[in-house]
Design brief:
- The chain is an alpha/beta fold.
- It has helices at 2-7, 47-52, 75-83, 91-96, 101-112, 116-129, 138-144, 150-161, 206-216, 227-240, 257-266, 277-283, 290-298, 325-335; strands spanning 17-20, 25-27, 41-44, 56-57, 174-179, 186-191, 194-200, 221-223, 275-276, 311-312.
- The chain has a four-stranded mixed sheet. The chain has a four-stranded mixed sheet with strand order 7-6-5-8, sandwiched between helices. Strands 9-10 form a two-stranded parallel sheet.
- The chain is globular.
């Protein structure tokens, strides 16, 4: 792939996409832009992967266009998103652009394997969480990420993080970062007390989870790194390599008393085992609260470490999972809780996001050959 990218081989156009870590831009293999250093290049099997890994589309080669140019009826909408990446466009606003929301949804599902709302959400997240590059001057950050002014950048930053850039003290803020995994990129956050967020970036509820987090932990938030996040990365690497069965990284997950009881009980489910919602309700002393347990399970903001994926239906079926049922299947296979399917880890991610099943393919090059397949709907978890 690197050779094809370096040579701008047109036969690979549409087969893979390349992201440049220094600019957070992704391109077609044939992009005429100057080639970056090989160590700064990442490969993606789809535009969806690149977007949910925090990259934005190149304006020169336009990788989001199916055949070099978006349909004329869609161009104004795409331009609006690029000009205002933090703007939220609801169906009523789409109609003001003279397009039917259903038509927009069908086009994005067909061409990019995701809905328009998923695309817009990816752009908002990518803009917000890659706006500040460590060690990069503010001027470069502002204009490299499509903001027309410092004030516009600061407004967008404050809207997402609750404080202007550079205003928060490292020991008194929420620190956000991205972590790659075999099941797709993860959005993570920590405070001095521990990990407070660990979510797959394409989860449909992620913005609601971020709002809850900001309400529960009233501190400014900034992109960056911390010792807790470094520990989490090490432990996740060991977990996915099959070398770790428990997590030692500290967790800070504020919630209601009921949620706290459910989440504590989740952490008592051993690696390689599962429990039903009914069993969890019994364990916390409320045998009739299985449905409420399911809701608390779905509100868990620290995936994998607080293992809500280990909760299944009474009949043994997987049930739902906020990160997508296919991910739940793979996590349980990794832990030996269910028999491994014929497909390798991470090989059957759904192509499209629907209202209840959220999943993104991994951006890891080792999983590039994975082919997407539709999966059943997911519910809490």
């Amino acid at each position: 792939m690197l050779r094809a990218f370096t040579r701008r081989d047109p036969s690979y156009d549409g087969v893979f996409f390349t992201g440049v870590t220094t600019t957070r831009i992704f391109c077609r293999p044939t992009c005429p832009a100057r080639r970056p250093r090989p160590e700064n290049v990442r490969f993606f099997a789809s535009t969806r992967e690149a977007l949910f890994a925090g990259f934005r589309a190149c304006k020169r080669c336009r990788p989001l266009a199916a055949a070099g140019a978006a349909p004329g009826w869609l161009a104004p909408l795409l331009a609006s998103i690029e000009n205002e990446p933090d703007r939220r466009l609801r169906d009523s606003e789409l109609r003001r652009f003279g397009v039917a929301p259903e038509r927009v949804r069908r086009w994005f599902l067909k061409e990019h394997g995701m809905t328009f709302q998923a695309y817009a959400r990816a752009r908002r997240l990518g803009s917000a969480f890659t706006a500040l590059q460590r060690g990069t001057k503010l001027d470069a950050v502002v204009f490299d990420h499509g903001f027309e002014s410092h004030s516009g950048f600061r407004e967008a930053f404050a809207k997402w993080f609750g404080a202007p850039p550079g205003r928060a003290r490292p020991d008194d803020c929420i620190t956000f970062a991205w972590i790659e995994s075999p099941l797709g990129p993860l959005l993570v956050a920590s405070v001095k007390e521990g990990i407070c967020l660990l979510e797959f970036t394409d989860r449909r509820m992620i913005e609601a989870q971020l709002s809850t987090l900001k309400r529960r932990i009233d501190r400014p938030a900034v992109p960056g790194d911390s010792e807790v996040l470094k520990q989490l990365r090490r432990e996740l690497d060991e977990y996915f390599a099959g070398k770790r069965t428990t997590f030692d990284v500290p967790v800070h997950a504020p919630g209601s008393d009921f949620q706290q009881r459910v989440w504590r009980e989740l952490r008592r489910i051993p690696h390689g085992a599962t429990a039903s919602y009914r069993e969890l309700a019994l364990r916390i002393g409320q045998p009739k609260a299985a449905r409420a347990v399911g809701r608390a399970n779905g509100m868990n903001r620290v995936a994998i470490v607080i293992p809500c994926h280990r909760v299944v239906n009474d009949d043994g079926r997987l049930g739902g999972y906020g990160g997508g049922v296919w991910r739940k299947q793979r996590l349980l296979e990794l832990e030996g809780a269910v028999p491994a399917s014929a497909a390798p880890l991470g090989s059957s991610a759904p192509k499209a996001e629907d209202a209840s099943c959220r999943a993104a393919p991994s951006s890891s090059p080792t999983l590039f050959e994975r082919r997407s397949a539709n999966t059943s709907a997911a519910s809490p978890g």
